[in-house]
Design brief:
With about 400 residues, this protein is mainly α. Helix content is about 70%, strand content about 0%. The longest helix has 18 residues. The radius of gyration is 21 Å and the shape is globular.
């Protein structure tokens, strides 16, 4: 215990071991302890690593905003250090989900470049896969294929792993299906099998057969497969997976009424965290379902409008109003002062906190409101739902 450096490294390895066998609660607790100890011992490497893995765990749970917040903390702590490479890749992946493709690409490219500097091919591979999906979303199919080819080349390295190669195959299946190439998807699906002991929910491997069945028109078989996966995902609180599964169930449903109900359940889960690409990447069948659900009206109508706008290729759509409700009381107070025109320093003085604390709150507010600057966040303060708007002038 008195050897802080060794203790921190061993604890990190323990947390990573828990993560790799799929015991996310145990991994989360270990990484939280590492973070606390690292702050006391000023071990920046241990802290950045722990925060990065905590971000990955939060993303699996479906807490996208918290995951992005942790990544930004790592990037702020590490600056240009290659240690922040996985945080850039993880943040880029979250921004992709929110359809901020431009900023997502920037973070992914930085993460890939930094991981090349330290020779970490697993992080590089994660970055290439995310970048390929982004390029596919932009309609640049040639670039997407070339990027995945780079991931495949890394997968052939001795430093790679069966899990990494399986993830590459999963990504190949997704892109092939998006491009309407069922034959290629079937070939790659044969390689998208989970190695023994691999925590499948973190790699979406189990969803690949269901995607393929849907593409083949085998809705009943896809529905049965998805029902089993949903039960397993619920037991381990795989939040991100639950959104994905419900969305796929809506496409596999036996009747139109069931399809709309599955979609409604998916949107209820997705709305607080602002999921966008999970729905948009499913193409025209999903767009048609969203149109039908929108016609029914209800509280999800605004969120559905945002999703439908994203189908047109528009990036960085306005966030759904309910996202504002997920600001903490302190973040709401900071936002109120931002709307009054106070600087970060003035806000720090008013609230009797450090400037760094205010900057963190501002970053979180910008993230949760899906805007790009303090000015845009202050403008959004005037558009908040009635229950919150009363806190703000005007």
């Amino acid at each position: 215990p008195e050897d802080q450096l060794s203790h921190g490294l061993v604890a990190l390895t323990l947390g990573l071991s828990y993560l790799n066998i799929g015991n996310l609660p145990a991994a989360e607790q270990v990484f939280l302890q590492v973070d606390q100890a690292a702050q006391q011992s000023q071990n920046h490497y241990a802290r950045m690593t722990a925060l990065t893995y905590l971000a990955i765990i939060q993303a699996v749970y479906g807490r996208l905003h918290r995951a992005a917040e942790l990544c930004r903390q790592v990037i702020q702590l590490g600056g240009q250090s290659p240690t922040v490479a996985p945080a850039h890749v993880e943040l880029g992946t979250r921004l992709y989900e929110w359809n901020d493709l431009e900023t997502a690409a920037q973070h992914l490219e930085i993460g890939i470049q930094q991981s090349e500097r330290i020779g970490n091919i697993l992080i590089q591979s994660d970055g290439y896969r995310a970048l390929a999906r982004l390029q596919q979303a932009r309609g640049d199919y040639t670039a997407a294929q070339a990027t995945l080819q780079q991931a495949d080349q890394l997968g052939e390295s001795r430093q790679s792993s069966p899990a990494n190669r399986a993830r590459n195959a999963v990504c190949r299946v997704q892109l092939a299906l998006a491009q309407g190439d069922l034959a290629a998807a079937q070939v790659w699906a044969a390689q998208a099998t989970a190695p023994a002991g691999m925590p499948q929910p973190t790699a979406h491997l189990e969803l690949t057969p269901a995607r393929l069945l849907l593409a083949q028109g085998e809705k009943a078989a896809a529905a049965a497969t998805l029902e089993k996966i949903y039960a397993a995902a619920s037991e381990i609180a795989w939040g991100a997976g639950l959104v994905q599964i419900r969305a796929l169930q809506s496409l596999a449903a036996e009747t139109p009424a069931q399809a709309l109900e599955f979609l409604r359940l998916a949107l209820v889960l997705a709305q607080p965290e602002g999921y966008i690409r999970t729905f948009v990447d499913k193409g025209e069948p999903m767009r048609a379902l969203l149109e039908r659900l929108k016609a029914q009206g209800g509280e999800l109508k605004g969120y559905i409008q945002i999703l439908l706008a994203a189908f047109t290729g528009a990036e960085q759509p306005s966030p759904a109003q309910p996202l504002v409700e997920h600001l903490s009381e302190r973040e709401l107070e900071v936002l109120r002062l931002m709307a009054l025109g106070l600087s970060n320093g003035e806000i720090a003085t008013r609230l009797v906190v450090s400037l760094g604390t205010v900057k963190t709150h501002v970053h979180n507010i910008i993230d949760k409101l899906a805007v790009r600057s303090r000015t845009q966040a202050a403008a959004r303060a005037q558009e908040l739902p009635g229950a919150v708007r009363g806190r703000f002038p005007g």
